[in-house]
Amino acid sequence: MADKPAPPPDDLDYRNAPGTRVTYRARHRATDRTTWLRLVLQLPAFMLSLALVLASCLLLEAWLGIPAWLPTSLWTASGALAFHRPSERFLARHLLRLHHPLPAELATLAPVWREVTARAGVDGSRYELWIEESEDLNALAAAGHIVAVTRRALEQLPTTRLAAVLAHELGHHVGGHAWSGLLGWWYATPGRLAWRGLVRLTPRLIRTARGFSYTTCAILVALSAWLAFTTLTATYGLPLLLLALPYLTAAVGRRAELRADAHAAGLGFAPVLARTLQDLLVEQSAAPASSRRPGPLSHLLSNHPDHRTRLHHLQPFLSERGR
């Protein structure tokens, strides 16, 4: 049985010693169960977006004569851009609002990242480090190679705690959570835009309907009800499952966070990560009462478990270390 990595001391200087030999695993990415579940849950949104894109392309074909299959195929294949480095950089700069670290910031961040990835047997140079200008104590993993930390995390976290946070984000990458989340967001975009357009159009439709007679409104309501009933009957009520998708997707997201915590703990960062979460709990308790605990629905729709839940799932790693 292979020896487990020793937990890092609080004062460890994360710089590879001269002559240190690091062995990287040939395969450092996997697709864990949370990633597969997320992909399955994203299928309805993908199919809806595909139908919208195909309908738009059919209109374009009738108008300009461009074969509908061509733009539809291009959109379907566009998810590969999630692993295209220039596209990732565009995403980081313009959508996530990140920027590359300055030389002094990189001098702090890069040695920590090298130590974390060396512990995991991962070639850290495959990833790009970014900075988010935020006062939150946070970090993120996105696309195929983006790893970012907030300004506060970079400037305020001790080196070992910063390493624990980065080990958590590395867990999202090696588990496939980052790229699957981006693909889900991208392929749901047409459906999301259509929904936003419908929401904006609804008030106008209501104002227009006010000018109709009661008989006309009753007929429209009856037709809508009949159409909804017919659809549900023909599909055995499957569209009702769409109402549960946001909650199921959020539950899978929370499980992915716990798996990323387990990845960091497996690299020896459980004690450091636990202390960081405890500090966040103290900070949260000092916040106004209205912002301490979200409502039940907000909690069910959250992609992140609360700090107490994360601490609870770290206990087996802490107990194992104490033996």
Task: Write a short abstract of this structure.
With 323 residues, this protein is mostly helical.
Protein described:
It is a single chain. It is built from 13 helices and four strands. By secondary structure, the protein is mostly helical. The chain has a domain at 213-323. It has a four-stranded mixed sheet, sandwiched between helices. β3 (139-142) and β4 form a beta hairpin. Residues 1-19 have low confidence and may be disordered.
Number of strands: 4
Q: Quick one: overall form?
A: globular
Write the H/E string, N to C: HHHHEHEEEHHHHHHHH
Q: Give the termini distance in whole angstroms.
A: 17 Å
Q: Can you tell me the residue ranges where pLDDT is under 50 for at least 5 consecutive residues?
A: 1-19
Rg from alpha-carbon coordinates: 24 Å
The chain-level structural class is: mainly alpha
| Helical content band | 55-70%
Strand fraction: under 5%
Total helical elements: 13
Please summarize the sheet with the most strands: 4 strands, mixed
Mean pLDDT: 83
If strands are numbered along the chain, what order do they take across the biggest sheet?
A: 1-2-4-3
